[in-house]
């Protein structure tokens, strides 16, 4: 159900704000996995910056790979996407688990 809502939100915002939306569709699993390949590696805690998370397609992959001491910082220009992400951090258990980080 969340994925359908994510796609609907993304496509609506793409049509309304195509000049500031970096993609035509949300990132898929293969791209998300490639973008997150270094999350959770190394001996030191990571500070991860996600620029333009949109509806959180890559964010979910980042969250799955984060270690307990890692931090996630996100910057989103689109207020609708930002609101959608705030909802994800309240509603989705995996997102909720890392909300304080």
Give the number of DSSP strands. Answer: 2
Number of helices in the DSSP assignment: 5
Global Rg: 13 Å
Low-confidence stretches: none
The fraction of residues assigned to DSSP E strands is 5-15%
Percent helix: 40-55%
Q: How many domains would you count in the coordinates?
A: 1
What descriptors fit this protein?
101 residues, mainly alpha, 5 helices, 50% helix, globular
Task: Describe, in short, the structure shown.
With 101 residues, the chain is mainly alpha-helical.
What does this entry look like structurally?
The protein has a two-stranded parallel ribbon. 50% of the residues lie in helices and 10% in strands. The radius of gyration is 13 Å and the shape is globular. The two termini are 26 Å apart. By secondary structure, it is mostly helical. It contains five helices and two strands. It has one domain. Strand 1, helix 3 and strand 2 (71-75) form a beta-alpha-beta unit. It has helices spanning 2-16, 29-35, 57-65, 79-91, 93-98; strands spanning 47-51, 71-75.
Question: How is the topology of this model organized?
Answer:
Layout: H1 2-16, H2 29-35, E1 47-51, H3 57-65, E2 71-75, H4 79-91, H5 93-98
Parallel strand pairs: 1-2
């Amino acid at each position: 159900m969340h994925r359908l809502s994510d796609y609907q939100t993304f496509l609506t915002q793409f049509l309304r704000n195509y000049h500031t939306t970096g993609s035509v569709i949300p990132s898929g699993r293969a791209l998300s996995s490639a973008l997150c390949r270094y999350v959770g590696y190394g001996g030191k805690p990571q500070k991860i910056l996600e620029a333009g998370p949109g509806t959180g397609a890559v964010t979910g992959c980042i969250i799955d790979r984060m270690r307990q001491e890692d931090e996630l910082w996100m910057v989103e220009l689109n207020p609708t996407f930002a609101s959608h992400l705030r909802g994800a951090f309240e509603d989705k258990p995996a997102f909720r688990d890392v909300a304080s980080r």
